[in-house]
Every structure is written in C-alpha cells, then in structure tokens.
Structures
1.
Amino acid sequence: MASLSSTRETAKSCQLCSFMTMNLHRQFATKRPKNQTFDPFGENGEMYWGGIDFMNALKAYAVVEKTAYEPSVYLINPETKDLINFAPTSNKDVSAKSTEKFQLPDVNKFFANAKWKVLETVATFSAKTKNQVLDMVEEHAPSPIRHLITQPEVQRIGSEFEGARVYLAKWAAQVKEEAEQARRNFSLDDDMYGKINKELGTEILTNEEVSKVTRRKPVSQVEWDTFFDSSGRLCITVDEVKDRIFHGGLEDSVRGIAWLFLLGVYPWDSSKEERELLHSSYVTEYNRLKSLWIEDDDKRAEEFWKDQKHRIEKDINRTDRSLALFKNKKNVTVTSVGSNVSPTTRESSPETPDEEENDEFDISNIRNPHLFAMREILLTYNEYNVNLGYVQGMTDLLSPLYVKFQDEPLTFWAFTKFMERMERNFVRDQSGMKKQMVTLNELVQFTLPDLYKHLGRCESTDLFFYFRMLLVWFKREFEWDDVLRLWEIFWTDRYSSQFHLFFALAVLSDNERIIIENLRRFDEVLKYMNDLSMNMNLEQLLVRAELLFLRFHRMVDIVDRESERRDENIKVSPDLRGLLSREIVVQKEVERPEGVGGG
C-alpha cells in the first residue's frame, strides 16, 4: 500500500510505472529457469513471498520510505505533508528515548521548555557534545581590554583575513554606536515582551510548525530525478524543491547539477537541451574573458595586475590543502600562461602539501593542476569584475565549487553567481560587513535581550567574533562536508536571503547559558566563540535557526498588531524587516580609484 505524491504529474507517474514494470518483468523473466528448483522458503527460513525483491527493485526508480504509523504502509516519493499525515499521533515513547541521549540547554525567557521538548521528539540528533569553558580565567589573565586590536584572539582573526583589521579600525566602534541608537529607537518595552512571551512561550507547536523544523534525509539521485520530466524540465514547483533541500540537503552525487540550479547558473525552467546549449555559451564566454589577460602583455606588466596575481597565488597555496585533490601529484607539469615562470616538473609525495616544501619562496610556481585552475579562474574573475578584483577570502568560497565541478568554465560561472550575493562582504571599505553586523546586533537585541545585556557588560556588543563566520559563511567553523550542506541550505533562500544571520543567532542561542554564567570579559567571550570552531553540531543548529526565524516572524507580527491596537508607533527597524525578504541583497563595489591596489 503506497501513497503517491499528489503534486507529481499523472503522465509521469504512469510513465514511471510502465518503465518499472518492464524492467521488473525482465528481471524476473531471467530467473525462470531457476523455478524448476524453487525453494519456497527464504534464507531466514520464513516463507518467501517476493515482496522484498519487489521493494528493492522499486527503490532503484523512486524514493521509498516506510511509515512510522504502520509498518506495512510505504510512501512513494513522499512530500512533507505525506510524512505528516502518516506520522504517529503520540510522541511519548520517542520523547522518552530522546531525552535520555541529550538535553538541550535552557535558553532565554522567549523559549518555553514545552517548545524545545516537542522539538526533541521530532528531530533526530546524535548525542550532544556540550561546549565546555576552557581555562579562560587563568591566574595571570590580562587586564580589562582597552585596545581591542592588541588582543591575541583579535590578532588571530586579523592574521587570517586582512579585512578584519579594516573592520576593526573603521567600523567596530560605529557598530556599537548604531546598535545603541537602534536600542533607543526600536527597543520594546516590558509590556510588549510580556505579550510576546505570553503568546509564543506557552503554546504547543502545531504539526505544521513541527514539520518545518524536522530534518530529513538528503535528496538522493533517485529522488532528484523524480523532480524532472523526460525532457529535463522541472515538474514540481521551485519552492517544493528548495523546501526539500532546505530540510535535508543533498547527497554528494546530486550536488554537481543541483548547485547549478541553486546558484542560478541554470534557470529552473530550462530543459536538458537548453542547458547543454547554455553550457556551450558559458565555455565560449569564459575563454573570451580569459584571453583578455592571457593575450595582453601590457596588462600583465601593470603593478595592479601583478599585485592581484601575487595575492591570488599566495592564498591558493594555503587553501584547503588537506584535501586530496589539492595535494601534489608526482611528475605533474603545469604551464603557467601569462607568468614569468616556465613549465616545471617536480617529484613530490601526494601526502606532502606545497607549503611544507618552501614554496613560499616561489608561490607563482603552482604544480598542482587543480590549484592552477583555481588561479586561472580568479585571474579571469578580475576581468569580469574589474572594480572588485581579488580580495582575501575569495579562495575559501571558490574551493568547494571547484572540488564539486572540477570544470574550469563551469566553476567560474558558479563562482560569479555566488559572488553576486557575497560581493558585499569584500568591498574595500567593509561597509557590507558592517551592515550585516549591525543587523545581527539588532537581531540579538530583539530576540535574545538577556544575552545582549550580558554581552554589553562584557564589552562584546560589537560581535567582532562573528566577522570570520559571516565573511566566508562559516567555512572555518565546520568540517568540509558540513560546510557543503550548510551552503546549499543557505542558497535555497527558503525563508530569507539572509538566513545565515539566523544561523549565527542560533550559535549564540545554543551557548547563551554558558556565556551568561561563565564569561565576564571581552577576551573571554572572543576566545570562547573562536574555540567553537569544529566543535558545533550542524543539524542541531539548523533546527534551532529555523525555529528562531519562525519565532522572529511571529514576533514582528505581534508587534505590528499591538502597535495598531494601541494606536502607538511601535517600530521594528527596517534592517530587521529586511530579514523577512527572500530577495538577495546585492552591493557592488564602486569604481576603483586610480592608484588604489586590490585586496
């Protein structure tokens, strides 16, 4: 017994059934000679009925999931609403088991225990490894912070990204000032918080709301194929696809094509034939852009171009070198087009990265062909975006794309699409980063007021510890596979084009109790937040971030309703309202002044 998704086209379902029937018929037909010695009992001694073989064959053509409500009921290509309809009516047993494995920490007054209790019953998590406060209060701890730039943790971030120093010098103090101004202009009174807490802190999550924060299995190749008809056109809505990816991510085998849709390289309404033509045009245009610097000797002689090339090569030589793809191969010859370095060959061990072989003395001599291809992509991007050029941190964004596509032109266009939303992170004056930090500051004030007050006492309301996380979308905070999962979820813009700020909020929310109870100074907060790197549970934070967004949305609705009822002008700042939009925020770099370098 199975429930077919109502959104699938009837014609496609019939086509699938017909195709499966023919293939199953062929499979069982080939076994007919064995029927002469057929054993009616299976390997486990039980009566053989053929259903298991049928289900295994069916899984090659469709997504098959057994329902929790009734073991004999299977769902074919289920949607979220199918899973809800066939979900068990009681979660008591699940709740008892889940609470034995881990216990989420208490959060502020906005999160009633009832909500998190329900969340535990529907989200499947591994045991939570709690972040412990490391010996941050030592016998010879430094005196209270007066000059942030001199602190080791600040220098640690500044040494990784030059933009962090620009941000500190130009914007950090202003972020605090604007946050204080926002607090005066848009802060809610105790009565309003009481109203919000009364409405949102005690009610039980509905099945629909629970389904939205339930993590699902990643989209498999089989399931992805069911999203398209025989011509390669999408046969369900774009929102349905994005919702599915948002709540489960993608299996690695699907990313090579799915990312091109998510990033906008391929239109969602295109056919397979149209995408092939588009790919051909992408290759042609990439080669044209690349020729602009390869064939121009005068350009390559300019100081700006040489400076950009040096910066690119320096960063590429230290980007994700733990990945097998970026380790040196034996006897690899790479021709350095447009460089003073001649083609070279070197014997090297695949286990030995370049930086351990004194390559810092000749960083332009890139032997790994994949690193070399990334260099070509970034130099060509300079021709595509002449005002921005190369800025430190871009290699962090390019690397996962190249690893997945391993196609120079295709990776280039995926990168340009990604940079449309990320360019604001790299503009010279850091105003794009400042804008996001101000918005995040207001978001923390609005949703986690108790924590924000404590951060104020710790002189940490500038949220500088988030600079690296926002700059390269948590690339340095999670393991490789988790980063890929996180990015594809951000790319869906399922709730907001700035969902990364709610994910950042979730990190604070998850650690709120520890911060309030144990940390007292700026350097303690900064060290603790930096030490979270590689020690966070992605799935838990995704669930928390989604629930935080849903709550934020409802908080805004309550404020608007109460403002109208009271006939008072109770405001939610424009920056916070902007978080409800799914439209990508684009900020372009201004024209580069004469004599101004890059990076």
2.
Amino acid sequence: MNSIQKNSLLNILAAAQNSAKPLNEDDKKALKELERLCAEGADEMRLVDCAAYEAVNMWGISDVWISAMSGMYQTDFQTLAPNEAEQVVDQAFEAIDWDEVENAAWKAGSDVINNAVNNIMAEKN
C-alpha cells in the first residue's frame, strides 16, 4: 500500500495553484480535494482506491464497526464515549491492510478486520 507525506501534498498543491496554466473545473475540484486531505489528514497518509475494494467485497468502515461491536472487546467497546468509539474504529480502519483483506477469503478478511480492532482495543486497556 502506498503512502504519501502531507508535506509532499502541500508542495504539489502550491505548485499547481501557482501554475501559469489556467485550471479547468475538474482541476479546481481536484485541488480542493487535496486541500481537504491536507487539512484533515495525518502527516503520512495511505493512498487507497476504495472503489476497487468496494467493487470486490464491499469491505469498509461499517465492517470495522460491526467487528468492534461484536468482537472480543464488545463489552469494553460499549463503555467508550461515542467519540472514543469512533476514534477506535478510525484507528483500526487506518491500521487495516486493505490489500490483505482484498486478497483474503471472506473469513480471512473478517479476521484481518477483527485483528485490527482487537489490537487497538488492547492498546487502550
């Protein structure tokens, strides 16, 4: 899975905004999305084509929520404040190797997701 440094995105964004070439609407939308990624993203971000995963197995954040609410940390998870629960799910989602999920069978894909949630919850305890 590829990753990119936020600073690199900022450099690309600055270069594109200072380009002498006029920007069309698609370019403007792409730059606006890069700005959003820079504002919301971590210092290092993974580049994932989520559409490719959804087309194959429809894996996604809802699977992480299901795992968190029904896995071995179910009781602990249910005692978390809503923002803490969301943080656990987001961290697990980011920790999952979606290439591994894509290449795994259905059960193995569920195991990858469950392991990510379990690892995050184990760190919290």
3.
Amino acid sequence: MGIAKLANNRRFLLLRNDVIIPLHMIHLLPLTISKNVIERLSGLRYELTTNKPLKPFVDKAPDVEIWNNYLTEEKNNSTTDVNWFGTRWLYAETYAYRRIFEAFQLTPPFAKYDYFKHLKCQQLESSLPSMEVFSNIFKIDLKQKSPHSVKDLFSVFIMLSLWGNQCDLSLSSGAVNETALDYDSLVSQQKTQLLINDLPKVWEYVNSNSEETIDIVLDNSGFEWFTDLYLADFLISNALAKHIRFHVKAIPWFVSDVTSNGFDWMFEFMSHHESLIDLVTKWESYLENVIFKGDLNYRKCVGDRNWDPTYSFVDAIQGLQSLSVLCLRTLKADTVDKNWMINGNSPKAQGL
C-alpha cells in the first residue's frame, strides 16, 4: 500500500497542477466561473491528500448511478470509511479522475472542455521526430511484398504499438525512445525483452480467420495513437481485417488517453507536416462513410465561414470532398424563426 500511496499522490498532485494552470489562461469567461472549477479541484485535492471519505457524485452524467452504486457497495462491505488510501488503488485513482470530470460538469461553460488537451497537444508536438523516423523506416506500400514477410511485419507493428504504450503522461513526460524504432531493434526486443510472448499464437489466429472487424481499445494519444493507426493500416492493407473499430474514452481520462477528439487532433496535426501528409491522406481515405451531427460539427465541416447562401455545399466542405459525407443539423438562426433557440423545426441533411 505504501508504494501505491506514493504513486497515487505523485500522479494526482501533478495532474491537479496541470489542470489548474490552463484555467487561469481562459480570459473570455467570467472569473467567477473559472473560480468555481478551481475551488472544486482544490477541494478534491484537500480531500484526497488528507484521506477523507469518498463522496457520492452529484453531477448529471449518465454514469453517476453506476459510480454511486459501487461506492454504496464498498461502504456496505467495509467496517470503516471508504477513503483514498484505504480502498483499492485502481478504484481510488479512477475515482479521482471522475471527480475532476465532475468539477467541470457542474460548471456548464466547461462541461465539454478537455482539461488535458494542452498536455496531449504538447505530447503530440514532441512526438513529431519519432513519428517521422518511423514513417521513413516503413515508407513502403504495405500491400506489396517487402524484404520482410507479412508475418514478421505483423510482429514488428505489434511491438511498436506495445512500446508506444510507454508514452503515458500520467506517469511520465510522454517521451519516446527513438533508438527502439529501428526495425532490427523491434525484432530483437520481441525475442529478448518480452516476459510473455504469445505473438506467434496471435498471428496464427489472425492470419487464419481474416476477421471482418478487429476492435482496438485505445490508450494514450500522441505517439502511441500514431502507432495504433499504423497497426490498423497494416492489418487492413494485408487483408487481415476488413474494418478496424477504435474505442476511445468517453471523458478526459488518465491525462493522455484518447477521446473522440483524438482523430481530429491527430489528422490535423499530421496534415501540417509535409513528411506525414501522404500518410494522413491515406488514413483519411479509409473513412469512407461519415455522418456529422450537430451545429458544431457542421461549422467545422464548412470551415465556420460566412459563405454566400448560394455557394455549393460540395465546394464549402473542401477537404472532406473525398469522403461520403452526411451532415445532420437543425438550423439555429433567428433569420429562420424567432423561436429558433427552442423549436428545432428547421433541420437539414446535406451529403455528398
């Protein structure tokens, strides 16, 4: 428990400071609003560092009942208070992240604010050299024969995805060991450093089953997310899967975990670096059928510009023209109806 206590303290204290700093940089919102969030986070820090009993959640998110029911069960099964250092390490740590989420949920202007975004963006920026190194090593058409067999490449891409897991911002700075990205190093690490190596068995299963869909439950953003995308590309290019389904976190989680915005950030970042443009163009081509819902996503699709009303939607959507796109949105403008904010009676479905 002593080691767990130290690890939890270090993670949480680092996390809390990194969360609060960017809040002071938000000048467009009233001070009282950002102050509410800061006070809740400071209160949470005090509760946890002084080992106070864990509190039920009071926000309106869909998972509140699940969390509170679990806390009730813990209390019923315990002869003492359920507190930070006395309960299970995993539960205590996830509870802390969920309470941070609650602090923002209880302050509506911040309800959808990713309070770890600045750290994830910094991590992505610092990962660029490693991303370029790896993309140069494997600058090949994955569908063609290469000097290495598909089986060998399968192990290499799995190993790369595995080593990418070192980039965890909740424990480190997200640094990447570029010396581990050499092809021969990845092969040799598989033989010498894996404590358990079931890759031959996994390869036999994947190669013989040709799954319709392979699900990848994502962990960290930045370089690890990049390696996961590369792995997905490899699996599809070699007909080891027809579809890849990514699972992301529903809320900002463990600092660096991928959320639904991860696709936007990664692809936009790659599109601004010449060495990665061909790669991101290829990956975007896999997104064959996309449905965008809501006002915000619609505005993103058309660049949030003041287009002439007669301008073609196909032209306005610009970079998405290579995809099969459907945009679903109810109009929100008093030029349509004075009650536009409440009636939602002017929807449209635009596609190409």
4.
Amino acid sequence: MIQYSNLATTGAAGSSSCTDIRANCAQMSSYCNVPPYSTVMSQQCRRTCRLCT
C-alpha cells in the first residue's frame, strides 16, 4: 500500500490547478498509470503525473 506524507508542494508559478498535494509524488511517479493507484495519483500528484494543461 502507498503511504503519503501530509506535506504539500506547489506547481508552476501562477498555476493553481497544477499542483502536487503530497510531498512524495516524485518518488511515487511510477504509479501514475498503474491501476488502482492511478486515480489517487491523478488527484494528489497532478503535476508529477503530467496532468496539467
């Protein structure tokens, strides 16, 4: 099971929708496209999973 820390990081300057809300998204990036983790990752690690527009 994936454990997340509660620290937040921000995305690109001026982009409120491009954020990672967990501090360890970079370490968990391999889970971006792996079910069942992809849903959680897309919600909590948008920047790391390259889901920003």
